Amino acid sequence: MRVTVACAGCRLKKIKCVHKGRAPCQNCQTRDGSDECRLFTTQEFRKYKRANTVLLKIDSGKLALSESLVNTCIEITVQNHPELVFLYFPPNINLFRLLDPVVCLGLCALSSPYLEKSPENSEFIAAFEAKLLEKLDDKASMDYLVLLQASVIWLLLNWQTGKTHKGYLFGGFADRVYTTLTNQKSTSGSLIEQEFYIRSIWAYQLTCLSLREGYTDGRARLTKYRLPMPNKDLLFGHTGPSKYLGDINLSQTSELLYLFVYTTDIWTDSNTWIFKGGRNHYREAPWDPASKWHSLNMRIESLEAQLGPKEKFSLSNLEAHFSLGEGTIFCYLHLGILISKILIRRNYFPFVPLDQTGPKGPQPLPKELCGAPKGWWKENAHTVFDCSRMIATIFDELQKRKKLFCNSYSGYCGLTAASMLIYAHNFPSYDPSFHDADLYYQYCLDFLKFYKAHWELGSYYYDFLRHTRRMLEAAASNRIEIASISAFENMKDELIEVANVAAPLPKTDRLNIESLLRSPKVPHSPAEDVDWLSANMAWDFGWSNLGVTFTDYTC
């Protein structure tokens, strides 16, 4: 019978595929191709054909996953995804020989938007998925360490291409692989093999640590495993005592990877504070030394204060760390400090300042926020804007050096900083001492344009910022005609989950990025902007700062 299910051979030859619902078909039996006959639906064949565009080039020798190509892809991936710490080895260690071909193919897929004269990114991704699924079927030679590395890459690829639901599922897949791998009895190997194993574990943890895990098991995992050895010790074969997260003495640590992990822990704490509801959950004054906010802020400030002269942010230090191959981690460290400050402080901003007399906090002011120390609101506002300026400066310096890195975390930082800078531009009275907000905003915008040109997730960030700007400009000129501003308030910290590429919190909805990217209706007015934002948001963070309708602020 002739149906929409047909084998690859018959489809390519454009002839009838006669079969009984299973392979082989009559044509393959006739030409002695029974072993190679596979039946596909039309949709399945499209995926198969797209994957084999790359696979056939590899098999035919037209495209070789050569050592030079893979090493180039490693360099690009390290620049864009510093969390993949199993790629951070001294130059004398040949990673090409350590990495499985499937992982190499995944690195090519992650790097393909930046490679010249390479196949389409979608073709590389399809080929990587096809090879990874083949490996999953090969139970005899299944290597869970390879699967862990590949599943993390798989997760990042789906996130970057805007397939967030698929990425969510692969976050669960990576977690299963991690559990199976760590439950196995680890056999002792060479120092390099041991380090390759532990760095793969940390790559998974730094990539997949989500807020759900932040409450329970995931936080314990951060202290369960030893930290990777410094590359200097690895080069000299000096093992020394194992170091764990709890062993880090900030005033005596110059190892950037350790500081990066420590900052990730603080970033997770800041996210958790927001996810629980921020100031609406913790009904306490942030200046109270016993408050959760105060302890969080002290952790951030303590880390920043104890950084050594080589670890503090400066343009000379940035240049030096890039020369040492650690520039991206150095930037990640400081982005983590800056964005954590912004997260916990902007929770005390009003949607729109009530007057031109400077910062006063959210209005109407809750009872627990009355009696702020003199200058506290002013200092809080200036810190948020100054951190945003620093983030913008980092992106500008990266762009000058052609070292921009595009991932969900850097995109979130760029979007958050740009949103606060455009707030400062539209409401200058909230911090009269802050200048050139629009200039620094442009730095963030340039970065997001670059991100947009390479990945679909970048388009999401760019579009979200465009609507945020229109919304704030409309609010500044009283051009919003809606009954409530809660939609925009809810939007602000939904973006936190965008920076976490693993599973969302249980029993909650997440921001529907795919719907946002493919919205059939593009808003053309400020009022429609609000409706559009509201339709693409799902989770109420309790950010209704004003407690009254927006019509009270319009003429």
UniProtKB/TrEMBL annotation:
Locations listed in the record: Nucleus
GO cellular component annotations of the record: nucleus
Pfam families, per database record: Zn_clus
GO MF terms held by the record: DNA-binding transcription factor activity, RNA polymerase II-specific; zinc ion binding
UniProt cross-references to Gene3D superfamilies, sorted A to Z: Zn(2)-C6 fungal-type DNA-binding domain
Keyword flag Transcription: yes
Keyword set includes Nucleus: yes
Zn(2)-C6 fungal-type domain residues: 6-39
Protein name: Zn(2)-C6 fungal-type domain-containing protein
